[in-house]
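INFO batch 0412 | record 1 of 1 | parsing
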Amino acid sequence: MSSGGIEESKKLAAYAAVDLHVQPHHKFIGIGSGSTVPYVVDRIVAQGKANDDRIFLPTGFQSKELIVKAGLTLGDIDQYTKLDVTIDGADEVDSHLNAIKGGGACQLREKVLAEAADTWIIVADYRKKSEILGTSWHQGVPIEVTPFAYARALLILREKLGSRNATLRMAKAKAGPVVTDNGNFCIDAPFSEADYKNPTELKLITGVVEVGLFCGMAKAAYFGNEDGSVTLRNADGSEESVQGKK
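INFO prediction complete | emitting tokens
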């Protein structure tokens, strides 16, 4: 599928999610991270005057810029600790809406806003849809860790928790490691399907701040498909086709 077709599928998924889950009475809205999120903001902006008394909270630098440039009111989780809905992307989503996130190294703030929301919704294109985590996302579980503790965390992951190829994520446009919005490092820890670790076990490693496994949190996920349709996947594994509006 062409890059233009993939972008169209992302837009359809984002539009469907906003149309169904961002309602006029919603006042506090979380805006996630990733390549699908600009379409989420575009669709929210199209709701016009409904945005006049809304507050929008970002999961990172990218979404903060999107909110500001769209002329929406920016808020912070320090001020608004309970949200009506958060819409976010994902790197992979399984049949029960468990998700891997953190490819953009925003997993800490993404999880805070996901947990703060009454409803957390995932939007993605068809490439992120799988039955079992680790099927299509091979980079591993993103793990945010304090710089002081990264070497020790890598040792534990490799020698005790079964992720022999766990690595510190290196930056592409600078020398050295990726640094998160919180000033931390990011480890990518691959696991086999049979040995996939739950977020609690990984988070108990001293120095780990947050883990990019989002389990049992999403209400629904919307996937834009190659044929222009949108698939809605529910937490019980059921799926249905929904109308994607352009």
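INFO post-check: The chain has six helices and 14 strands.
INFO record closed
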